[in-house]
Specification:
Layout lengths: L1 E4 L5 E4 L3 E5 L17 E9 L4 E7 L3 E8 L2 E5 L4 E4 L3 E6 L4 E6 L7 E8 L9 E6 L2 H4 L3 E6 L7 E2 L4 E10 L3 E4 L5 E13 L2 E4 L3 E5 L3 E17 L2
Parallel strand pairs: 13-14
Antiparallel strand pairs: 1-19, 2-3, 3-4, 4-11, 5-10, 6-9, 6-11, 7-8, 7-10, 9-12, 13-15, 15-20, 16-20, 17-18, 17-19, 17-20
Length: 233
């Protein structure tokens, strides 16, 4: 079974300094039909205005991934990490038993566009942790590159969750496929461009939710950037 959710069906919030699309219920957006998918809890597509950002705030028992699309995101946390996250980097923060952090766009004339992703952990109360790695466009071109996994396979960041995350760039005749376990769930989020997912056309911001499927096939891309989640049911 494959179900498509269109970009415009997502929740939306405009705070002036922050414009955010919510794939699942978050903050003031509540939809009982979209509370998450498997152990994927949040995908927020955020645009942070120049000179603005999220002040210091806390998280607990959540695996949080930041995926920057344009601009840069400045990160500072209570573990002592002070980092800049540019496009191409994947940041993983394990909130564990509790962590405080802030995220800012220090650019004077550029919006930071990024995805904030939360995955429910399979262990609770752990020591908070941080990891950040760069994945070049060449690694994602015409294929699905593993960027997050429970065991750090192929140099991916390590998440304390029963989930894997792949990133791909597809255009023209490029195709990519992935064998799926029908007993698990898969979630495809099209970041930008156009793409066919098992024959269904998606445009930027659209998502496809797959259950009981054994194969994922991606093709007919037009400047497409895509994230694919392999998730616990």
């Amino acid at each position: 079974m494959l179900q498509v959710r269109k970009s415009q069906e997502r929740g939306y919030a405009d705070h002036g300094w922050l414009r955010s699309f919510h794939s699942f219920s978050f903050a003031n957006y509540y939809d009982p039909e979209h509370m998450g998918f498997g152990n994927l809890r949040v995908i927020n597509e955020d645009r942070v205005a120049a000179g603005a950002g999220f002040g210091t705030h806390g998280h607990k028992d959540m695996e949080i991934i930041s995926y920057v699309l344009s601009g840069e995101l400045a990160h500072k946390d209570s573990m002592g990490n002070v980092e800049s996250i540019p496009p191409g980097d994947v940041q993983r923060m394990s909130a564990g038993r509790g962590v405080m952090h802030s995220e800012f766009n220090h650019k004077a004339d550029e919006t930071t566009h990024f995805l904030q992703i939360w995955i429910q952990p399979n262990v609770r109360g752990i020591e908070p942790g941080y990891e950040q790695k760069k994945f070049s466009d060449a690694e994602k071109r015409g294929k699905l590159r593993l960027v997050a996994s429970p065991d750090g396979t192929d140099g991916s960041v390590t998440v304390h969750a029963d989930a894997r995350l792949f990133a791909g760039l597809l255009d023209g005749e490029e195709k990519a496929s992935l064998a799926l376990d029908p007993k698990r769930k898969s979630y495809v989020h099209l970041v930008r461009g156009e793409l066919e997912v098992n024959g269904q056309k998606l445009v930027g911001g659209d998502a496809a939710m797959l259950e009981g499927e054994s194969q994922l096939t991606l093709g007919a891309g037009k400047d497409a950037e895509v994230l694919v989640f392999d998730l616990a049911a």
